[in-house]
Design goal:
Anth_synth_I-like, Chorismate_C, ADC_synthase, Anthranilate synthase component 1, ten-stranded antiparallel sheet, twelve-stranded antiparallel sheet
Length: 442
């Protein structure tokens, strides 16, 4: 693997916008620490379309494992030698839409999807540009035998002009009817009373049409108005994902597997004293605490399926994190990955995330399929990367737009429990959608 430093402050979004075929995927953190990764020179892809979702004999995550095994068995895949530990050093970009769950849990009723938005995608990536926000250093890498790509990426970095975001003009926007959500909350509360479930994450949809602007402009506005640590933009040709997600589904590095669930949300106040009090109230609220602990237990169980016995622990419990428009309660659960567990098995154990389905997971997914009027598609799916050595980092696609040319859709949800107040849960969905709505305002 060839790695070289690049002097300067590269504009990775500008490169993506200028050449989406060469640089189709960009993952970024929005703080002062962490890495931004622009994936370059995509090669072969495995794509799961809607009509293939329940096709017998085809499993996307099995195909992912087959691709990973094949690469590991090639003699030209060498150990990583680099002046710095890069988070991505050759492998795949991975995207999984929520409806991939039908390949993992056949008991969930499959609805016909009237869209060609991809369900899942695995793209081989031999090169990337990586920016370390902490050290302000930029690295260009390419796999063995691909050294010429280094020069091409360096040239692109030197000549591309800075990205000049243009205002995105919204032509139309329709919000799902309140009563559909409110009725759904009441139905879930009955399911809870009858003992079917403890908690269900119910979501609702906004749909619109852009009068002008594109995915790159929308992403720039979203990152400015709703920054989050697991942001990204992915271009699939006719379709794009634009995300500013605060939530990690799973990471694997050096044998340690981690997940960081978010459960418990209050909208922020513009008054500093009241905003600080809201943080304290959120952490002290019995409903929010109970909902969060339930999710922590669920994720501990999920990790227990793939980790060494006795190694799963909660190393960060119920920390309040503040974002542009909401406060969240977050925890971190980790464990030591068993040596026999493949990347596909890791994703099968964790996907879809418990915080965006509920507890118990299978029954909640069945209820979601019953109550939600349209498919989630990318929403509450996941995107990230997988390295040759099995390390990975995957987000949960919340606070995310789906674009199909000028058509746009997004969703926001809330966790429904026994004592949920329907109107308050409705307001929570709007608080979570606020950053997305602000990105659409000029």
């Amino acid at each position: 693997m060839a790695v070289t430093r690049f002097d300067g402050s590269p504009d990775l979004l500008a490169l993506h916008a200028a050449n989406r075929l060469r640089y189709p995927y960009l993952l970024q953190t929005q703080g002062k620490q962490g890495w931004d990764i622009l994936f370059a020179f995509p090669q072969s892809s495995i794509k799961l379309a809607t009509f293939e979702l329940i096709q017998k004999g085809f499993s996307f995550l099995d195909e992912l494992d087959h691709a990973w095994f094949a690469e590991r068995n090639q003699v030209n895949i060498q150990p990583v030698i680099s002046p710095v530990e890069l988070p991505f050093h050759g492998g795949w970009f991975v995207y999984m839409g929520y409806e991939l769950l039908h390949q993992l849990e056949p008991s969930v009723v499959h609805k016909t999807l009237q869209t060609d938005f991809p369900i899942a995608l695995l793209t081989r990536i031999p090169a990337a540009i990586l920016c370390d926000r902490g050290s302000k250093q930029t690295f260009i890498f390419a796999e063995d035998g691909q050294d010429a790509l280094i020069d091409e990426m360096r040239h692109d970095l030197n000549v591309v002009p800075r990205f000049q975001a243009e205002a995105t003009v919204l032509k139309t926007l329709m919000e799902e009817e309140d009563n559909l959500f409110l009725d759904g909350v009441e139905k879930i509360k009955r399911y809870i009373k009858e003992g079917d479930v403890f908690q269900v994450n119910l979501s609702r949809e906004w749909r619109g049409e852009l009068g002008s602007g594109d995915a790159s402009n929308l992403y720039a506005q979203l990152c400015e108005r709703n920054p989050a640590p697991f942001s990204g933009i992915a271009d699939f040709g006719r379709h794009q994902i634009v995300s500013s997600s605060p939530e990690r589904l799973v990471s694997v590095r050096n044998g340690l597997v981690e997940t960081r669930p978010i459960a418990g949300t209050y909208a922020r106040s513009i008054d500093p004293e009241q905003d600080a009090q809201l943080c304290r109230d959120l952490l002290a609220h019995p409903k929010e605490r109970a909902e969060h602990i339930m999710m922590v237990d669920l994720e501990r169980n999920d990790l227990g399926r793939i980790c060494q016995p006795g190694s799963v622990e909660v190393d960060d419990l119920m920390a309040v994190k503040t974002y542009a428009h909401v406060h969240h309660i977050e925890s971190n659960i980790r464990g030591l990955l068993r040596s026999d567990v493949t990347p596909g098995k890791v994703l099968k154990a964790l996907f879809p995330g418990g915080t965006i389905t509920g507890c118990p997971k299978v029954r909640t997914m069945q209820i979601i399929s019953e109550l939600e009027q349209s498919p989630r598609l990318a929403y509450t799916g996941s995107m990230g990367y997988l390295n040759h050595d099995g390390s990975m980092d995957m987000n949960i696609l919340i606070r995310s737009f789906m674009l199909s040319q000028q058509e746009l859709r997004f969703r926001a949800g809330a966790g429904i429990v026994a004592d949920s107040v329907p109107e308050r849960e409705l307001n929570e969905t709007r608080a979570k959608a606020k950053g997305l709505l602000r990105a659409l305002s000029s």
